[in-house]
Amino acid sequence: MNVGTDANTGTFAVASLRSWWDLIGRDAYPGATRLLVTCDAGSSNGTRNRAWKKELAAFAEETGLEVTVCHFPPGTSKWNKIEHRLFSQVSLAWRGRPLTSYDVVINTISAITTKTGLTAAAILDQRPYPAGQEITDAEIRDIQDRYLSRHAFHGDWNYTVLPAPRPAPEPAAGRALPGRVPLDVLNHPALTGTDPAALLAWAESLEDLAAALGGPTRRHRRRGYPSRLTAGDLFTAARIMSYLGISQRTLAPFLGVHPATLCLALRPVTRAAAGVPPPPAAPPPAAPPRTRGEFLAYAACHGIDLSIPESGKAHTAPEATLQTPDTP
């Protein structure tokens, strides 16, 4: 038994397995090429615990063992034979004994013997296992694609972790990303009413705050792909909409994203900019554009080319495209 002093995490669960293999298993089964692990459906070795699968993949690759994992269905962890063969004896051994220190725990477990020949060993693991380890979608997807072989029956509960990873799969052919107008074109005084350098400096000063408030960079990183919208894009878009009074529906196609994407991305930017006044702006035009056609005509009058270039490179998780009519 591995007695830990920190959090009961997936990393700790695999560290316990590694300690058993190094101290007992390797010598007891010198010719072993496979290992069967039966465990609960939740907690540190649960079916959805990403750290458990990540560390298991590292353990399998490190030892060369093919590790088969069989999770007991939810609510049936007491079916596991170790509950009856070992844990019951531990409960009997320390029944009525105050567990005042780790030494008492270790010595009590190590003193277990039964008439049928059972003996127990215990070690103290004082290494840190901090909770909250973040495993991204991209990481767990790579582990599932390259290391996990799910069984035909309940593959979410029964799977084998391979000691040698499969080759990385070829990237799926995604639809090409829609084109967009470059930032240096959109960041024009006629569109923002502000000096371009001053506007970008203002955006850079608020970038960290906007990201901390849940900006698109964090959201897209969690989903495993980068955002198309930088802080400069978002603050420039906010200034254009404020200065000219155009809608997100009209502006979004020029940034190559769906209006809903722009709407969500602008929320933290708006909150970040609420307490910091923007750079001085020129008076807005007397007749500001309201539709896509008027916006294009207004830009052309100021020598600004808002034509959208050809679609960019392919992307496995593209943004939705939208055909925007000439309406507000």
How would you portray this structure in words?
The chain has 328 residues and is of the alpha/beta class. It has two domains: 2-161, no CATH class; 183-301, no CATH class. Helix content is 44%, strand content 8%. The chain has a four-stranded mixed sheet. A hairpin with a 7-residue loop joins strand 5 and strand 6. The longest helix has 19 residues, at 10-28. It is elongated. The N and C termini lie far apart (68 Å). 24% of the residues are buried. Mean pLDDT is 84; it is low at 217-226 and 312-328.
Write a brief caption for the model:
With 328 residues, the protein is of the alpha/beta class.
Question: Rough shape?
Answer: elongated
Query: Percent range for helical residues?
Result: 40-55%
**How many domains would you count in the coordinates?**
2
Task: Provide mean pLDDT, rounded.
Answer: 84
How many runs of DSSP E, i.e. beta strands?
A: 6
Read across the widest sheet, the strand sequence of neighbours is 2-3-6-5
Spans with pLDDT under 50 lasting ≥5 residues?
217-226, 312-328
How widely separated are the two ends? 68 Å
Strand-pairing-aware structural class: alpha/beta
Topology diagram in text:
Blueprint (H helix, E strand, L loop, with lengths): L1 E3 L5 H19 L5 E6 L10 H14 L2 E6 L9 H13 L8 H9 L12 E3 L11 H10 L1 E3 L7 E4 L21 H4 L2 H4 L3 H17 L3 H8 L7 H14 L3 H8 L3 H15 L18 H10 L27
Parallel strand pairs: 1-4, 2-3
Antiparallel strand pairs: 3-6, 5-6
Helix pairs in contact: 1-2, 8-10, 8-12, 10-12, 11-12
Features:
about 325 residues; four-stranded mixed beta sheet; alpha/beta; about 45% helix; 13 helices; 2 domains; disordered C terminus; two-stranded parallel sheet; single chain
